[in-house]
Structures are given as C-alpha cells and as structure tokens.
Specification:
210 residues, 5-stranded mixed β-sheet, two-stranded antiparallel ribbon, 4 helices
C-alpha cells in the first residue's frame, strides 16, 4: 500500500521562512560603499545685483563714483572704467594662443596642440590690479555684458575671473591659471568667531545689455 504524500495540498513542499541574514549582511556592506563612491557637489548661491535706474544727471553734478564694466566681444575682453572726474578708460585683453595640457602633465611641460582662446589669465591680472588700487578698494560690484554670439561657457569663466582672488596676482598661461587655488583669508563670522574663507574681488555681478 502506498504511503501518503508529504507534500502540501498545493503540491509544493513547505520550505519555511527564508533566511534573510546573509542578504542583510551584504546590504550593510554595499550601502556605505555606494554612499562613499558618490561625488557630492557644493551648491552656492550667486549674489546678483540688478541694474539701478535713476533720473537724468545734471551737467553741473560731478560723480566721483567709478563704474567698472567688462564687455565680452568676439575676440577680446574690454574693461571699461567710467565715472569720476577723469575721462573714461578702456583696457583690451585680446585672445591668445595656448597649448592643450593634460591634467597629469605639469604646466611647464605642456606640449599639446595650440588653440586660440580668451585670455582669462590676462583678464584676471588686469582686474586684480584694479581691485588693488585705491579707487576700487571698497567697490564690490562689476558690470558684465557680452555680444549675442558669445557662448555661456565664456561668460561663466569671465565671471570666475573677476569674483574671487587667487593665490597669485597673475599667471603666465591658462594651465597655471586653471589649476590655481583661491586665496584663503581669515575673517570673523556673525558670531564673532574666526573663520577662513576665500578672498573676494567683485562678488556682486550686474548683467548689462550691449
């Protein structure tokens, strides 16, 4: 006589509850590794000042306030200094030829193909020189405008060239300029504690239409 079947009513053997301990152990190891491998980006809010509009100035008024503007043209940067009792002054920083330099190669050994680009090191040197002058020591805003054909990446690098001060006042080429670190200075926060922050030149950017 055949013995009764040990299977359940559905025809499947009851295996019991699964053992989740090995799976949970693996997850406890993988989760920290995944979090550690993520690249976290620091998001900062750029302070933007809108252009100010006022009434017409009279011919007898002599404003001593200097206005600094950077215009991005097709092949150069134009630094304009207006206002005060002196005539308006322009400084042109034309495009230059640079060499492609891989990240793992020291700047003094760059021997890549030549290409023409905006002279951001030259622009930074001229703006830093103006910031160090007595006329712009207390000025924290700068006007920036560009032609319609100028791409946004050029505008972004132009803004970077005037906002923060780097460790040196000038750099000989684009490679050393791109790898330069911001100058760190000690200051006090709202609570009176001493903190180290990046030194600023013109943190307030005013976009102007040409």
């Amino acid at each position: 006589m055949a013995s009764p079947s040990k299977r359940g009513h559905g025809g499947f053997e009851d295996l019991g509850d699964p053992d989740l301990v090995p799976i949970m152990s693996i997850m406890c190891i993988l989760i920290p590794m995944l979090i550690y491998s993520f690249v976290l980006y620091e998001v900062k809010v750029q302070e933007i000042s809108l252009p100010k509009f006022g009434g017409p100035s009279t011919s007898n008024s002599k404003s001593k306030v200097l206005n600094l503007a950077i215009l991005v043209a097709k092949d150069q940067h134009i630094i304009k200094i207006q206002g005060g009792e002196k005539e308006a002054k322009e400084i042109t920083v034309k495009k230059k030829k640079f060499r492609v330099c891989p990240a793992e190669v020291p700047c003094e050994e760059c021997a890549g193909e030549e290409y023409e680009d905006y002279d951001f090191p030259g622009l930074y040197a001229e703006v830093a020189k103006l910031k160090d002058s007595k006329a712009f020591a207390e000025v924290d805003s700068i006007n920036i405008g560009a032609d319609d054909t100028v791409p946004w990446r050029v505008m972004a690098r132009t803004i970077d060239s005037v906002r923060a001060r780097l460790e040196k006042p000038n750099y000989p080429d684009l490679c050393t300029y791109s790898r330069a670190k911001p100058l760190r200075v000690k200051t006090t926060d709202a609570d009176g504690k001493e903190v180290t922050t990046a030194a600023e030149m013109f943190p307030k950017i005013v976009f102007v239409m040409l």
